[in-house]
Amino acid sequence: MIGPDWPADWAARQRYLPWQARPRRNGRLGKCPVGADGRPCDPLEARGWRAWTDALACVARGEAEGVGLVVTPALRLTVLDLDDCVTPDGLTPEAQAVMDEFAGAYLESSPSGRGLHVLVRGACPDGWRRRPGLDVITTGFVTVTGRAWPGGAPVTRPDQQGRLAAWHARHAPVSTAHLASGPAQPARAPAGDWFRRACQARNGARFQALWAGELAGSPSASEADLRLTLMLLYWQPQLSDAELGALLLSSGRAREKLTDPHYLRRTIAAARRYRVA
Fold first, then answer.
1. Is 97 left (phi over 0), alpha (psi -120 to 50) or beta?
2. Is 151 exposed, middle or buried (0-12, 13-18, 19+ CB in 10 A)?
3. What pLDDT is attached to residue 202?
4. CA–CA separation, 156 vs 16, rounded Å?
5. Nearest to 226 by CA among 87, 11, 26, 52
């Protein structure tokens, strides 16, 4: 059931989709946004967005398990998704620190009850989007429960742009480029006109979000890796596996799992299979 605490001003926006629990490729259940026909849909397609009351009605009729909000940069809302942070003794220290940092933001329990969503008014700067146990979401599909964490449903929710930017900078991964031999290479978008065209394409917002390291509506980080790989193959079909892997590792998706050569090869192989299917 959806709780009563979801802010009324956000409920007035037509930015919602119902979701159904569906099995992922790894066998676990994922929260899949569905359209009016009950089929999985692209949450970033604005034509399919529904009113809050319509999405709730789907849940009431048993057509969906829950409701989610579609977040895009235009909304100027940053969602901090904290996983497995609720324990029998309360919040983990890391989650409590985030909660204290953004006092005045709306906080609610995740559908599992083991996590928290912290919804901060403000646009998160470019840069990192993931730390252990924490996803920073500015583009994608975020499940909504309407069950506010105690003290997490303030009457007014201040714009926290400055605080968000300072927090994001303070927790940025420490660069080790200065430890490498040779001159450090400045971070930049890949060379070639294809990257600009990919960013400006109809699904450019999704591409940019995936490239930055966000889930962008994907049910898991692995799904997001695969989706970005498929997009890269669309724009650069001539790349070898080694070149494609290097491109993936230069994106914001780079993390310990992606540097595992076995995982990277499996992801690329799966994307190539999808391309020829």
1. alpha
2. exposed
3. 86
4. 22
5. 26
